Amino acid sequence: MGQRGEPRRVQAYDGELGAAVARAQRGDEAAFAVAYRLVQPGLLGYVRGLVGDDAEDVAAEAWLEIARDLRRFKGDGAGFRGWTATIARHRALDHLRRQKVRPRPTALEQDVLDLPGPHSTHDQVLETLSTRAALTLVAGLPRDQAEAVLLRVVVGLDGPSAARVLGKRPGAVRTATYRGLKRLARQLGADGVTDDGPRTLGEST
Asked: Which residue blocks in 52-76 are alpha helix, DSSP H?
């Protein structure tokens, strides 16, 4: 992760994503497929953290809305990721309201249990978040922390973008992300994890 917490691998795609979205808005179906390929993994991970096993259905609903309203979008690649995350969040919350239950984490799979020992860093913790098993851990966090971690780490949004999706202040999202990552690190046995953390933010979550 970079100095401000955005995954560099996601940021690297933003130029390509922005160009693909612009072409898709002009009716280029192949460009829309490129945008889908770049956004879907992170978006699906975010939705899975919210609704569990129903994530693919909810994400599909979100993409129908994204395709329908694509011409209304204005912005660059990073903005498109934030816009799609907002749509996906609305569909996920609608789904949860219909179900009237929150998803329950499933049993951990072996790939999470095989994480490195006491010298783990936050980067090593974050690497595990790309796995479905690790996403079940995120789903067990308090809601504000879970959403902040998913948006910052899985979707790859910066603090202000994640804050806009959640309707919160950027400082509150940074605090929730930090607390969520620290809790995950403890659960994963990464006792040696250190982080500069937002110690002077002071925002409540």
From this structure: 55-69
Lookup: tokens for 140: 């067990």
Residue with tokens 């912005």: 75
Residues contacting 200, CB < 8 A, separation 6+: none
How do residues 92-118 score in pLDDT, each as one tens digit?
999 988 887 544 444 333 333 333 433
Is 54 in a helix, a strand, or coil?
helix
81-99 pLDDT, tens digit each: 999 999 999 999 999 888 8
CA-wise closest residue to 121 among 167, 188, 168, 67:
188
Distance spanning both ends of the chain, measured CA to CA: 23
pLDDT for 151 beyond 50: yes
Q: Count of residues for the chain?
A: 205
Reported confidence tier of residue 49, pLDDT bands at 50, 70, 90: confident
Q: Which segments of 26-121 does DSSP mark as H helices, in order?
A: 29-51, 55-69, 77-99, 110-113
Q: Pull the structure tokens for residue 93.
A: 């919350």
Of 149, 48, 50, the residue nearest 159 (C-alpha): 149
> Taking a C-beta distance cutoff of 8 angstroms, is the pair 86, 147 a contact?
no
Confidence (pTM): 0.68
Residue 154: DSSP 8-state:
I
